[in-house]
């Protein structure tokens, strides 16, 4: 139990170079004593869980604890001629029709925000 707490409180070391997918897999495999195949399988499973969560029949929400939250936001259809505010001038103008859509929103959670500020 003490070893688990010690490793989570270890200082975060900056990674100077931009990681590619292959570089990320190699780094995770090296730090955890796993093979590249095992890490690839874990990342693939995580990807499938994410896609399943945001699927139209899914829950519409996915949380990677402490890092990020993905939420679907349903945007209703807009009829032609609806008055909207022109962001440049502030005056009201008629808008074109738009079909209903779904937006994917990503939100950084506390641990990720704290890591970026240090």
Describe the secondary structure blueprint for this structure.
Layout lengths: L1 H7 L12 H12 L3 H19 L6 E4 L3 E8 L7 E3 L6 E3 L6 E8 L1 H8 L1
Antiparallel strand pairs: 1-2, 2-5, 3-4
Helix pairs in contact: 2-3
What this model shows, in words?
With 118 residues, the protein is an alpha+beta fold. The chain has 2 domains: 20-59; 61-118, no CATH class. The chain contains 4 helices and 5 strands. A 3-stranded antiparallel sheet has the order 1-2-5. Helix 2 crosses helix 3 (36-54). The longest helix is centred in the middle third of the chain and has 19 residues, at 36-54. The chain is elongated. It starts with a helix and ends with a helix.
Q: How far is the first residue's CA from the last residue's CA?
A: 27 Å
Please state roughly what percent of the residues sit in beta strands, choosing from under 5%, 5-15%, 15-25%, 25-35%, 35-45% or over 45%: 15-25%
Give the strand line-up of the largest sheet: 1-2-5
Gyration radius over CA: 21 Å
Largest sheet: 3 strands, antiparallel
- Kindly state the percentage of residues in helix: 25-40%
Q: What is the element string, with H for helices and E for strands?
A: HHHEEEEEH
Specify the number of helices: 4
Any descriptors?
two-stranded antiparallel ribbon, 5 strands, 4 helices, alpha+beta, disordered N terminus, 2 domains, three-stranded antiparallel sheet, 118 residues
Q: What does this entry show, briefly?
A:
The chain is α+β, with helices and mostly antiparallel strands and 118 residues long. The protein contains four helices and five strands; from the N terminus they run H-H-H-E-E-E-E-E-H.
């Amino acid at each position: 139990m003490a070893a688990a707490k010690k490793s989570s409180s270890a200082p975060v070391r900056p990674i100077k170079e931009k990681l590619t997918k292959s570089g990320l897999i190699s780094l995770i495999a090296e730090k955890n004593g796993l093979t590249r195949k095992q890490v690839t399988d874990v990342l693939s499973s995580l990807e499938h869980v994410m896609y399943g969560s945001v699927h139209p029949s899914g829950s519409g929400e996915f949380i990677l604890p402490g890092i990020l939250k993905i939420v679907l936001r349903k945007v209703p259809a807009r009829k032609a001629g609806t008055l909207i505010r022109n962001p440049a001038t502030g005056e009201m103008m008629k808008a074109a029709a738009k079909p209903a859509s779904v937006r994917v929103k990503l939100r950084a959670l506390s641990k990720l925000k704290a890591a970026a500020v240090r």
